[in-house]
């Protein structure tokens, strides 16, 4: 028999669940894009929070004494959702950094395109990488992992019991910076290597034939070689995206462990 009773304490518990879910959805990759209508986001947040509320084994409401005490609980839940979502979203900046490196090598660093999903100006290569990784994220059902992860956090971190450990968060960010540089360089390595080889060839030609002004054709050659390298290596993005998705899982896990 289903119990439809709903007390004032249950309402307070549900609102705390709703706050953490809202903070996560508005920060997490894929869900936080501006292309997703707010009505869809709000409806998803409400129904996910309702599901989590019903599947929770026990609605244990943390003790508080006043409105200020409940406000602190709300802030803790909002911060927990933001930290978990930020841990996944920051990993998407890897492709942006890789795109900037590739654009600098190809001479396209001044070419900026407006990205309607993030409302930012992004380089040509970075925008292509971002949309490609986002498409792979949807095809591989990585967005389902985000939903499962945030639902499991209510078991690992009970509502109102989040304890923030700054040392673990700081160590996670330092470890991420190392992986950030490594993965970004792996993504743009074919383009960087191709441009370096072309620069070496142009340098040799300049010494052997000084009457030819290589600088006038070097800019066009960089763009052509960079685009060719980009076309040849575009098939490697699915395997490279696995590094980013693995980093997302690791960051979300570390962020959850730092609040237990």
What's the Cα radius of gyration?
Answer: 24 Å
**Biggest β-sheet: strands ordered side by side in the sheet:** 1-2
Provide mean pLDDT, rounded.
Answer: 80
Instruction: Tell me the count of domains.
Output: 1
Describe this structure as you would to a colleague.
The chain is mainly α and 260 residues long. The protein contains 9 helices and 2 strands, in the order ααααββααααα. Strands 1-2 form a two-stranded antiparallel ribbon. Helix 1 (8-25) packs across helix 2 (38-55), helix 4 (93-106) runs antiparallel to helix 5 (124-139) and helix 5 packs across helix 9 (237-257). The longest helix is centred in the last third of the chain and has 43 residues, at 166-208. The model has no long low-confidence stretch (mean pLDDT 80).
Based on the model shown, name its key terms:
260 residues, mainly alpha, two-stranded antiparallel sheet, 72% helix
List the helices and strands and how they pair.
Blueprint lengths: L7 H18 L12 H18 L11 H23 L3 H14 L5 E4 L4 E4 H16 L2 H15 L9 H43 L5 H20 L3 H21 L3
Antiparallel strand pairs: 1-2
Short précis:
The protein is mainly alpha-helical.
């Amino acid at each position: 028999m289903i119990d439809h009773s709903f007390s004032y304490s249950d309402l307070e518990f549900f609102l705390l669940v709703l706050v953490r879910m809202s903070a996560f959805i508005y920060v997490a990759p894929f869900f936080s894009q501006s292309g997703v209508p707010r009505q869809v986001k709000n409806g998803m947040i409400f129904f996910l929070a309702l599901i989590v509320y019903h599947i929770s084994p026990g609605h244990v409401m943390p003790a508080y004494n006043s409105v200020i005490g409940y406000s602190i609980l709300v802030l803790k839940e909002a911060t927990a959702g933001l930290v978990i979502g930020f841990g996944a979203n920051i990993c998407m900046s890897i492709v942006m950094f890789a795109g900037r490196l590739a654009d600098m090598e190809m001479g396209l660093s001044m070419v900026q395109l407006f990205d309607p999903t993030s409302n930012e100006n992004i380089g040509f290569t970075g925008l292509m990488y971002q949309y490609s990784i986002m498409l792979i994220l949807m095809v591989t059902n990585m967005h389902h992992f985000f939903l499962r992860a945030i639902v499991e956090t209510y078991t690992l971190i009970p509502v109102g019991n989040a304890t923030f450990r700054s040392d673990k968060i700081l160590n996670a960010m330092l470890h991420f910076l190392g992986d950030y540089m490594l993965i970004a360089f792996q993504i743009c390595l074919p383009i960087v290597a191709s441009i370096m080889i072309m620069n070496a060839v142009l340098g040799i030609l300049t010494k052997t034939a000084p009457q030819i002004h290589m600088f006038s054709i070097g800019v066009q050659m960089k763009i052509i070689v960079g685009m060719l390298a980009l076309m040849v290596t575009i098939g490697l993005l699915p395997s490279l995206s696995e590094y980013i998705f693995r980093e997302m899982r690791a960051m979300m896990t570390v962020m959850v462990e730092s609040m237990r």
